[in-house]
Amino acid sequence: MKICVLPGDGIGPEIMAEAVRVLKALDLKLEMEEGLLGGCAVDATGTPYPEATQKLAREADAVLLGAVGGPKWDTLPREQRPERGLLGIRKDLGLFANLRPAILYPELANASSLKPEIVAGLDILIVRELTGDIYFGQPRGIETREVNGTQQRVGWNTMIYAEYEIRRILKVAFEAAQKRGKKLCSVDKMNVLECTQLWRDIAEEVAKDYPDVELTHMLVDNAAMQLVRAPKQFDVMVTGNMFGDILSDEASMLTGSIGMLPSASLDANNKGLYEPSHGSAPDIAGKNLANPLATILSAAMMLRYTFNQEAAAQRVENAVKKVLAQGYRTGDIYEPGTRKVGTREMGDAVLAAL
Amino acid sequence: MKICVLPGDGIGPEIMAEAVRVLKALDLKLEMEEGLLGGCAVDATGTPYPEATQKLAREADAVLLGAVGGPKWDTLPREQRPERGLLGIRKDLGLFANLRPAILYPELANASSLKPEIVAGLDILIVRELTGDIYFGQPRGIETREVNGTQQRVGWNTMIYAEYEIRRILKVAFEAAQKRGKKLCSVDKMNVLECTQLWRDIAEEVAKDYPDVELTHMLVDNAAMQLVRAPKQFDVMVTGNMFGDILSDEASMLTGSIGMLPSASLDANNKGLYEPSHGSAPDIAGKNLANPLATILSAAMMLRYTFNQEAAAQRVENAVKKVLAQGYRTGDIYEPGTRKVGTREMGDAVLAAL
Ligand SMILES: CC(C)[C@H](C(=O)O)[C@@H](O)C(=O)O
Ligand SMILES: CC(C)[C@H](C(=O)O)[C@@H](O)C(=O)O
């Protein structure tokens, strides 16, 4: 069980340190090796996904990632920006299936900006395609050409999906729905985009293999509305890379506690990259303020999906539930009457609860 | 002052009847002529934007639209679906600037699924580009070709913007911000899409002409989150056609009363198409249940933007505020303690308040 550990930038190293401590406490035969991804890799090697990291990641069974990015690297040329590292490792490892749960922990119900009756008990799984769509489609670029008789800059990208890409992500989504509430909502914009008309057609075809799952379709604009209006109508949602980027962030913010939400990005053989849903929060980096729980829960997802260690995964998840019940809170989820702790102390509490 | 009136489908005819009554009560020299758009046009002529309507719309100074679409026409070939009519008239009339206010009326604060302190006083204007982007970009389609050694269907679309398209919509947005809170947030996905990198570059350039407006940039995934977390941070938002479709619907749902929200789609000379932000609600069509206020407020926007009749626009808007204060509510915004009325009675109340 080989893990490539990539702390990344900003709060990445701090939150990763706690997740690693938790993993080490589990008495599993885990091998961990650290590498560089994102801004720290640019600083050290000039490129956000250096060869040494590529080798490490390819040889490992799973990758555990903190977070990448920060204003320091925002003005670099495109190929050197930290997010290129993230896009690069996703594509390189074929991590086409991004699973993002949006769960509202009962203890944190107040953190949501939505009314309690709208979000209490929220438990959605968003399945986002991660290696196709307009993110990687060719041709793309910016060039100067003649438009309406004058020389102008023009920028363009290509949204594109082949049948096999749509089919495999839909299978992942149907299988996830089978293990949960048996409801799958596929999101597209078929009334405007041919690319997503194909998506809808294939969803209908794949559905025939999963008669126990109820498939519905929703247009992306309506989905963005329904997530605000009545998010509990959803069980599993599946969509393309671009719409998934937007909707999964919207859905996680419904909980008000994005510092609690893990994610998994899987290939066809359950090799995966696991990372918190939140960003690198450069403003609080190095201050022992960040919430390590999303990273710890990402480690639990890794135990479940890649290593098939369901018992260990549940042990970690239960420990997290226990520290919440005990009242431990980092600043992002703190409210009066609870116990404010730092990153390190939150890790201590999880270890104690294990 | 020539108005092309297009009631459309579903609840369209009912809500339009009330808006027309209000306009007629204003003692302005308005000429109104009715035409067909959407499903009703398909039924009558086989096409959703027939030539007679094209002529009418081109010759008019403004178009007032109810709503188009319904399940009845969803299985027709693409070119015959009602939304083709909508896309067709937007493109044909060059209506590139879509203005969508998301306003929470104090009387309707409870209708929101968000906590009152998060949304009370909400007043955002979303400026969406409406005739470019992936909506109209070429090439596009679905075809079968060889992928990884097998014959597969592939679907694709093209996101594309030329400099002049970005520049003109940003000008509209900056000018709108100047008349409001002087804050403009431009939304893109520049870290992934070259097309929107150009958008951001041009936004920076145009900003030089509006030193009194504070320009910020936000990535679309973050914008979807921030609208849920703290929507009152925004004054005017500007973005492309696709992101604008998603974000403007999300923003209007924050108010919980999409039945109250008008919209304007303008060309370069303030000719415009005005329509409610909600859809055609086929489930309640013909039952005197629909809320006509968004259409009435769209008529007010028409008086303001196309006909420069600020006083008349305010008269209508004040009448709407008055009926809300008097407690009149259609079913969509009803709560105990208020007075439930039908479409027609709501129109009567507005007329009385005028
Ligand atoms: C950093 C960025 C490229 C990335 C994406 O858009 O996929 C991020 O927003 C995410 O969702 O993981
Ligand atoms: C009906 C559809 C084509 C349209 C769009 O996507 O523009 C609608 O959602 C809107 O926002 O007016």
Automatic annotation (TrEMBL), chains A, B:
Domain Isopropylmalate dehydrogenase-like intervals? 2-350
Q: In which pathway does it act?
A: Amino-acid biosynthesis; L-leucine biosynthesis; L-leucine from 3-methyl-2-oxobutanoate: step 3/4
Task: Tell me which NCBIfam families the record gives.
Answer: leuB
Note the site residues: Important for catalysis. Answer: Y135, K189
Please state which protein family the record places this protein in: Belongs to the isocitrate and isopropylmalate dehydrogenases family. LeuB type 1 subfamily.
Q: Where does substrate bind?
A: R90, R100, R128, D221
User: Lineage of the source organism?
Assistant: Bacteria, Pseudomonadati, Pseudomonadota, Betaproteobacteria, Rhodocyclales
Q: Which UniProt keywords apply?
A: Amino-acid biosynthesis, Branched-chain amino acid biosynthesis, Cytoplasm, Leucine biosynthesis, Magnesium, Manganese, Metal-binding, NAD, Oxidoreductase
Instruction: From the UniProt record, report the name of the gene that encodes this protein.
Output: leuB
Catalysed reactions, as listed in the record: (2R,3S)-3-isopropylmalate + NAD(+) = 4-methyl-2-oxopentanoate + CO2 + NADH
Pfam name, any one: Iso_dh
The UniProt entry's GO biological process terms, in alphabetical order, are:
L-leucine biosynthetic process
E.C. numbers: 1.1.1.85
Name by which UniProt lists this protein: 3-isopropylmalate dehydrogenase
Subunit field text: Homodimer.
Q: At which positions is Mg(2+) bound?
A: D221, D245, D249
- Indicate the segments annotated as coiled coil, or none if absent: none
Q: Supply the InterPro entries for this chain.
A: IsoCit/isopropylmalate_DH_CS (IPR019818), IsoPropMal-DH-like_dom (IPR024084), Isopropylmalate_DH (IPR004429)
Q: Species name for this entry?
A: Thauera humireducens
